[in-house]
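Chapter review: from sequence to fold.
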Amino acid sequence: MKCGNYSGSQHASKLFIAVDMKTIAVLTDFSSRAEHAALFALFLAQKIKADVLLYNAFQVPSLESVGHHGGDYGEIKKSTDNKLSTLRGNLEAEIENKSLPATWLPSISYLCEEGEIANHIAELEEDDNIILIVLATHGIDKAQAFMMGDNCLQVIDSATVPLLIIPENCAIKNIEKFAFATDIVHNDMDYIQSLASLAKQFSAEILIANVNPHLPLTLEYSNAINAFKKEVTSKINYNQVYYRNIPNDNVKKGLNWLIENIKFDVLVMVHRKGDPFEFSFKPSITKKIADHVYIPLMVYPYPVSLVPSF
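The token string follows.
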């Protein structure tokens, strides 16, 4: 069951293409973290000329958990709808107070559904205009704050459009550099081209970071790196893309070094289950990078047929 003031192309066939009307979906639980993520999404929407959809999945308590009266769906739905309306009002006030003349003014709508958030991602993505899902980090403490909430992990596994996970203490400012982590083994050109379409909106650099586990470099791997760089040059239509090899025989340590030593604004990864780059979703590695939770993480899902152009 749904509530809200939003209607999208709910039954259109799913294609990842450039669209005239772009929408950023913001998952919210009405926490301060989620409101900060919504403000970040609003800033991003103004840069890429997109609209914003606020989305909440609410739970109705069971009879066992609340007693013989059970959960009151109508009251919970009304309360959720009111909270979404209030959040929309706050964002609209933010636009009114801070937008300069000729700035894109996003249309802000909202939608809520009953149930687990991850179970509704596929239905939400049936709207072909949605090109990005924004959500906040979930966690009680600093070590858990970087990608450790169950809902966050479930959304990552469920989504088929890119996700942008926003830490509660990251600054909302112009993006100057994206760091795209790759192992060059997989063909990431479509993802890099998609990222380039986003980076253009900020005139931002893209650092392609390859943690090289082959020490010393084998001839085969050296040839693979050269082929990868040539493919980037020939296929990626953006002149601010740079490559950096990070020599380390441990991928996780190499990426930790990247986070600790290279200044960038957004870390970008492709979510392939079982890859070494899945370090971001594991508690032990999370604790190691807990001091760097100010860095937003953009996650491209894999596999998908096409990726969005921003």
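Two observations follow directly from the output. The domain at 2-136 is CATH 3.40.50.620 (Rossmann fold). Residues 7-16, 140-148, 283-292 have pLDDT under 50 and may be disordered.
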